[in-house]
Input
Amino acid sequence: MENVVIVGASGYTGRELVKILTRHSKVKISAIISNNNSGKFVWELYPDLKGLCDNLIFEKYDRMSLLSRGDIFFYALPHGISMKYIDDDFLNKKINIDLSADFRIKEKFIYEKWYKNVHIHSEYLEKAVFGQCEINRALIKNSKFIANPGCYATSMIVPLYPLMKENLIDLDYDIIIDSKSGVSGAGKKLDNMYLFNEQNENFLPYNPLGHRHIPEVVEFLKEKTDNKISLTFVPHLLPLTRGILSSIYIKLKEKISLDKIKEIYNQYYGNEFFIRLLDKLPSIKGVAYTNFCDIGFACNEDAKILVVFCAIDNLLKGASGQAVQNMNIILGFDEKEGLI
Amino acid sequence: MENVVIVGASGYTGRELVKILTRHSKVKISAIISNNNSGKFVWELYPDLKGLCDNLIFEKYDRMSLLSRGDIFFYALPHGISMKYIDDDFLNKKINIDLSADFRIKEKFIYEKWYKNVHIHSEYLEKAVFGQCEINRALIKNSKFIANPGCYATSMIVPLYPLMKENLIDLDYDIIIDSKSGVSGAGKKLDNMYLFNEQNENFLPYNPLGHRHIPEVVEFLKEKTDNKISLTFVPHLLPLTRGILSSIYIKLKEKISLDKIKEIYNQYYGNEFFIRLLDKLPSIKGVAYTNFCDIGFACNEDAKILVVFCAIDNLLKGASGQAVQNMNIILGFDEKEGLI
Amino acid sequence: MENVVIVGASGYTGRELVKILTRHSKVKISAIISNNNSGKFVWELYPDLKGLCDNLIFEKYDRMSLLSRGDIFFYALPHGISMKYIDDDFLNKKINIDLSADFRIKEKFIYEKWYKNVHIHSEYLEKAVFGQCEINRALIKNSKFIANPGCYATSMIVPLYPLMKENLIDLDYDIIIDSKSGVSGAGKKLDNMYLFNEQNENFLPYNPLGHRHIPEVVEFLKEKTDNKISLTFVPHLLPLTRGILSSIYIKLKEKISLDKIKEIYNQYYGNEFFIRLLDKLPSIKGVAYTNFCDIGFACNEDAKILVVFCAIDNLLKGASGQAVQNMNIILGFDEKEGLI
Amino acid sequence: MENVVIVGASGYTGRELVKILTRHSKVKISAIISNNNSGKFVWELYPDLKGLCDNLIFEKYDRMSLLSRGDIFFYALPHGISMKYIDDDFLNKKINIDLSADFRIKEKFIYEKWYKNVHIHSEYLEKAVFGQCEINRALIKNSKFIANPGCYATSMIVPLYPLMKENLIDLDYDIIIDSKSGVSGAGKKLDNMYLFNEQNENFLPYNPLGHRHIPEVVEFLKEKTDNKISLTFVPHLLPLTRGILSSIYIKLKEKISLDKIKEIYNQYYGNEFFIRLLDKLPSIKGVAYTNFCDIGFACNEDAKILVVFCAIDNLLKGASGQAVQNMNIILGFDEKEGLI
Output
């Protein structure tokens, strides 16, 4: 049994990691770090986990102790904090999977512009492998340092990759991405906006055209496909807890039939367990509480307009599920272990 | 007091008409028609209306009797049914407000193509005035026959009209409209898809690129602005009861500042009570249970991409509220009567 | 037009007062007090009210100015705060309607025990009339100082009063009241418990056997019926915004038929507009966004057990709606004014 | 690997069985029966299961074929139907777990009175073991025929059993049980009452005092404790999908401290993995999507009134989860297998 350390476990993604890893047959959680909750049992903070990890106690971060106690480190920390925990010892000796944005973007200045934060470890940026499992599996397999993708980013990258790789998109047009996320996507924030009475029976756009997941999508897809896209991206907040559905509007270079489009996606993802190409349209209900990524299509062939719909659970395929999938890839486990 | 007849009052829009009109100080409901429920008190079908209209009893349709008992006729009937009730007597002597799609589209063949239904009274198509109150008020005022707009259509037409009238849109690009509607938008249908367990905690697209509200938007805007747009329209179903929010992605002909855009909208709608131009982004919660239409903006000036957000209550400004607003205009009442 | 001042208007009940009073034809809001929001337009805090009260600006409390500007004062303040604003000038010259608990309980020590707060104006306790409109109308009519009932309290008092007045309850048994409230019942509190992700798809009891609405129910019913009940009261939190449903389990002294029970309720409330005695069971949907109080019954005649169900909108009949109804009674207006 | 047959798999409990059993490491689904859906892949009916059981095809019931293909038979059928599939061959050779009510009640006439249905196999009633795992484990272990308890029944029996076994309840008083269930409790019924627009933002009682789960609770507890209780039971419908919370009001024979009460429950359930005795109050969110049964308490010691709260997921501990737990007990597997 490999030993897993979860650094920063008081948010929603940390909690999902605990839920997944207590079910995982090949690893065990050897330490769980939350400076604010140190000394508490995990089930005191998360009563629904009682019975599943009763001996697990939040600890303060203690570098030396953890170096000896963990093989795999998940960092479920806010942006700007994860980077403080990474150093050569960890990068050389441990498997590191960072769920924050700190190492997703290779260009220091782009990170700093979007996250309004000085990057104190930009020398490690090149070492981090972007952890979109299905597209980057070959690199992930040989890496010990994963930058796990953002939730919205995952729901854009997976559907866009085959079209860009095959050069099918008319890049003179912006790609329009209208995304809708459940409230857990905002994390565990005590803010008036996230009160029940505010979001129940409500729906609204937020942060239009300026969301921070844009640069990781553009940069990663450029790296993998040599195509540079312009994104018009507007996220919206749904009155439900878990799930993202992105509706992606694409101008095609030339007229292609929907059948041909589906054939292409099938070449890329037909053998992927966690990517399901549907004959109908995806829904959030179809993927909530799972690590699946469901994709469906609509096409106006004459107008050369393709709409791709992509649904994921933001906390699983969009965060902790993909993080564990990355760990499974690196350690040579069945990729589904702990995730079904 | 003018006498109102509601023909077809067993659906959601009929029910909203009853709620509005029982509060209206200048009209009274003289008859309410539902062949399926004839003989029942209205409060038996709608217990929440008990106390508000206790003597109102559903009747079977009886043309002669109704001709003598009503001044204003609202038709809250399914598409294809409303048209059967319209004839010269009604058109000449009564005020007729049809909430169905039967008379919204002027071109018979376009109606028949989209609604898969033979139009048996196409000779009346030209007589019907499209009832978007704020844009078409001058014609409405002098009409006795209103085709009340569809709910999605309202949420598109109001925000698009100023841009098209001012010739600001680059018509080489499709206008992308990503709309989200509460479940009441589907009407009162007993269908597995609309069960609580299906839609609760769910979100999904439906009928992409082929929704029937497209032709009325394109035709009405062409008539009013001489511009013909191509629409890529995808509706989605929200896990809430009431409200529509449409996110509209527009390529501008040339670079315009967001301030200038707002100034233009202000010229068109600055004096309109029911259209609110917001400095922030609209939300469904802000308009639910009201007849307001809230509009907000985001703009990528360099890319010449404008996003306009429009929120309405689908049953009020998107149906029964606008229908009563049309009646108020025709009869010279305060437009807000019954609606605030 | 009488002039209304709302003191403390930044919570949910204050907001409902604004919504009701802007529609009221016989009064106008002359001042609205919120020390925290002074200087802001009301629509800045409540964007959904834009268009309805555009000139209304939150002010700091200024006793002298308000004494000259208001005829009716609503206090929508937290418990312990309202009492600070009451003095002889206000009690003698103005109509005062307090939505807090400060003057509901006549016994100073009981108030102080349950609210853990020293009562600084206990000399006024006897002057306040408990504002359950239907039961206490005669006293309300001649009063200038109303203690508006709590939301849960209303949902208990209305159904219990006829049974107690008629001496039908076996008082050797506790009355069991299992109440369920929407999240707005907790007010506008920024607390982890009220985050969307906590309450959505959730349901739980809270504060069992010790809720503060118990003493006002017991005391008021004793005063009106000379019977003293023991209450076992457990409130629960529902995953919806508005509404309370209380299920009340009563042991009857002797066997009575359900028809007889209904007849008795009809004697008490048959002519009350806002109390609806149903033949079926009440639901929250039937009363949400209305000032109605719906009552229904189930009875095990042999076991002499009666269950009475009572549903109200906690913000209307349970707070601001009843407050305005009280004002209407005092000023001799139609009781329904502003409330339908 | 043992072979499992699911008879009647088109409802919610059948679907949960599929989800649990595809994850179970010691059994596999060898056949899945749905006369209405025969020939369809399971994922066609349940798209969210795609990837998990792709070769599984609904079949028509074929007794001879199934006798040779299955070791364990789950009957997820409506009441009155299950009984038709049970015969001596199955009872002698197979493990049979019936999720319907057909064999829960030992007295034929009581079954027939409550279910308004002739029992065609009352000779088997005595053979069926009531499948409340924690209380009846010893009998279950040696049985091949389990009557799996109802969802509401489970949420009553587990909390009542220790009190009754210890003779702590004053049986002169009815036990009041106020239960609240998510909409999935009603099964997959196409009925106006279960439409999204009806239940969203709604809450209501239904079927008060007459729900069919009463007799199995009374009979089973009498059998196990020799005490006969009277139940006043009112179920209510919650606007959420999964979960039941029952609030149980009990008059104690004598004054007992809450600590003592907790000690007693700890004796009964302290070692049970799936029963969690909480220091705080249980919530539906704490048990949804799990097989846990959470119990919490409130006590008015002076009044000798105890309130016990019990929360379960109606589809898991309340149906399919407990059914699989029963199978695990019979086959000697780890009871948690497939259930965490």
Notes: Chain A is about 30% helix and 20% strand.
